[in-house]
Amino acid sequence: MEQMLLKRVGTAGSAGIGTALKLGAYAALEPAFRMRPADVVHEVKQSGLRGRGGAGFPTGLKWEFCAGAPGKQKYLLCNADEGEPGTFKDRFILEHDPHLLIEGMIISGYAIGAEQGYIYIRAEYPAQQDILEKAVAQAYESGYLGRNILGKGVNFDLAVHTGAGAYICGEETALIESLEGRRGQPRMRPPFPAVEGAWRKPTVVNNVETLAAVPFVITLSAEGFQKIGEEGSPGPKLFAVSGAVNKPGGYELPMGTTLRELIFDHCGGISEGRRLKAVIPGGASTPMLTADHLDVKLDFKSLVAAGSMLGSGAVIVMDDRTCMVHAAAVLIRFFKHESCGKCTPCREGTGWLFQIYKRLLNGRGREGDADLLLRICDSMQGKCFCPLGEGAIQPVLSSIRHFRAEYERCASGACDEKICRPLVH
Amino acid sequence: MISEAAIERIRKTADRYPERRAALIPALHIVQDELGHLSQDAVRSVAEELDVPVPEAFGAASFYSLYRWKPSGRHVIYVCHNLSCSLLGAETLLDHLGKKLGVPEGQATADGRFSFERIECIGRCDGAPSMLVGKDAYDNLTPGKIDEILQRYT
C-alpha cells in the first residue's frame, strides 16, 4: 500500500518545515479553505474516518456536534498522550512529521470553528515535545499558524501542552481536566466535550493519527479515502508491533490486514523461531487472542467479532516462553498504578486484582484464585466511571479464558516452567 | 527558591491559556527541571503565581507520576517495566542498575550523578527494553549497553 501517514517519515530532516513542504506538507489547506467549514465536516463524515485513539468514534460526527454547539469560542485538542501500553504509533508522526499533524489541526479547527488548539503531549515524550515546539514555531514563521492563514481570513493558534505521567489523561475528559491544571480525573458525561469541554466551551479532542488522516480526506476526497481499507473501517491505519517478533516497529497498512499477514509477512515472524502463544491486538486494554485467531482481520468490526478490539492498533506478541499469569500481572500492576481513584470499583478492584496476582507469582497462590479474579472482574464490569476500569479487567478475563490451566498450575504450585518471576513492585 | 528566570517562563506559559491555572502542570515541570525535584515551598510559590488555591495545587501535583518529591540524581534514569519491556528483560536491567549504582530505586547516588526509577510504558516498545535518561531515549538495552551509556553522563 502507498504510505500516507508515514510517507515523509523515512526522509532525513522530515520534521523541518523546508523538507516537509518539498514533500507536500500543507497542500491540503488551500482546497480545504475553498470549502465551507460545514462542507469540510460533511466530507470527513462521508469519509467514514473513525478515531484512532482506541474508541473508534466517528470523527465527522464528533465535529458536527461541536460545530453545531452554541457559542463562538471553541477549542480543538490533540490527544498526544499516547500511553496505552504497547502503543507507539503516534510517536512516528510527532517525531518525524509534526507538520502533518499541524496541517490536520488547522483544517479541523477551520471545520469546527475553533481558533485555538492545544496539543497535549505526554511527558514521557520529551524529545518529541521539543520537536513539536520547533515545528509549531516554524509554522507560525511561515504563516500557516496565527492570523489570516494563506490570506484566506482563517485564524488558528496552536500551543503544545505537556502532561506529567498519567495514563488516565488519554481519556478525553480527564485530558481536559489536566489541561486546565487539575488532577486528571474524568468528568461525568453528558455534557460531552463537543458541547462543554475545555473551559466549559465546545471542544473536540482527537488523537494524533486521526488528525493526521484529515489532510488525506481533503486531498483524496471522502470517496477516495473510503477506497482504502475495509467497509466500516476506512483509511490507512498505523500498527505498532512489539514483543516476540523479528521486526518490531510501526507499520502503515490498510485496515483489514490479517494478524497473520502483519506478524509473518510484515514483521518477519516470531523471533528466535519460537511459536506464537498470545497476541494483544490493540493495546493493554484489549482482550488477548491466541494462535487460533491468526486469520482475524485487523479492523473495527472483525476484531469485535473475534472477542477483542482494534483499540489503538498496538499489537503485543507473546511467544511460547511467556507465562500468561505473569503477563496479565504486569498489566494489572499498570492499571492499578494508573487508576485515578475517582470511582470505587476501579480503585479497589485493580488493587485487589494486583494483590492476588502478587500472591500467585510469589508462590502463595490458592486453589480457586482464577475464580476469585473473575469475581472481582465481575464487580468491576459495567460499574466503573470511565473506560479505564473496563479496560483493566480485559487482560484478566481473556488470559483466564484462553489459559486457565496455567492459572491452576500456578495456584497449586505445580508449575515448573520457571519462566515467570516474583512480582515485588 | 525558584529563580526569576523560571518565574518569567511560568508567566509566559500562562499567557497561552484563557485561564492562568492551566499553566500549573507545565509550571511544575519548569520548577522541577530547575530544582531537580518539587518541594512544598516550590509548589506553594507556583500556586501563588498562578492564582491556584494551594491545597488544589498540591492535589494536582501529587496526582502525576513524573514529579519527584525527594532529591534525585542529576540524571534521572527511567526504566520501562511494562509488558513489552518486561517480556524482553526489563527486570534484569533494573536489578543491574541497582547493583551498579548501589542505591535503591528513587534514591540518588552518593555523588549525586544518577538516580533510577521504574516507569510505565514510554512508547518505545519497538525497541524494548527501553529507558529514558533525561530527555534521551535508549532502546534494545542490555546490562553491558547500559554501562556504556552511563559513561556519557557526568
Structural account:
The complex is a heterodimer of chains A (about 425) and B (about 150). By secondary structure, chain A is of the alpha/beta class. In chain A, about 45% of the residues lie in helices and about 15% in strands. Chain A has 16 helices and 12 strands. Chain A has helices at about 15-20, 30-35, 35-45, 60-70, 90-95, 100-110, 125-140, 170-180, 210-225, 260-265, 300-305, 325-340, 345-360, 370-380, 385-390, 395-410; strands at about 75-80, 115-120, 145-150, 155-160, 205, 230, 235, 235-245, 250-255, 275-280, 290, 315-320. Chain A is globular and about 75 Å long. The model of chain A has no long low-confidence stretch (mean pLDDT about 95). In chain B, a hairpin with a 2-residue loop joins strand 3 and strand 4. The model of chain B has no long low-confidence stretch (mean pLDDT about 95). The interface between A and B is large, with 56 and 47 residues.
Number of helices of chain B: 7
The secondary structure category of chain B is alpha+beta
- Spans of chain B of at least 5 consecutive residues whose pLDDT stays below 50 are none
Structural class of chain A: alpha/beta
Shape of chain A: globular
Helix content of chain A: 40-55%
Helix share bin of chain B? 40-55%
Q: How many E-type strands of chain B?
A: 4
In short:
Helix content of chain A is 43%, strand content 14%.
Task: Quickly list its features.
heterodimer; A: 425 residues; alpha/beta; 16 helices; 12 strands; 14% strand; B: 154 residues; alpha+beta; four-stranded mixed sheet; 7 helices; 4 strands; elongated
Topology (SSEs and partners):
The complex is a heterodimer of chains A (425) and B (154).
Chain A: H1 17-22, H2 29-34, H3 37-47, H4 59-68, E1 75-80, H5 89-96, H6 98-112, E2 116-121, H7 126-141, E3 146-149, E4 154-162, H8 172-179, E5 203-207, H9 208-226, E6 229-230, E7 233-234, E8 236-243, E9 249-254, H10 259-266, E10 276-280, E11 289-290, H11 300-305, E12 314-319, H12 324-338, H13 344-361, H14 369-380, H15 387-392, H16 394-412
Parallel strand pairs in A: 1-2, 1-5, 2-4, 8-12
Antiparallel strand pairs in A: 3-4, 6-7, 8-9, 10-11, 10-12
Helix pairs in contact in A: 3-4, 3-6, 3-9, 5-7, 6-9, 12-13, 12-16, 13-14, 14-16
Chain B: H1 4-14, H2 24-35, H3 40-49, H4 54-61, E1 75-80, H5 83-87, H6 90-101, E2 114-119, E3 131-133, E4 136-138, H7 143-150
Parallel strand pairs in B: 1-2
Antiparallel strand pairs in B: 1-3, 3-4
Helix pairs in contact in B: 1-2, 2-3, 3-4
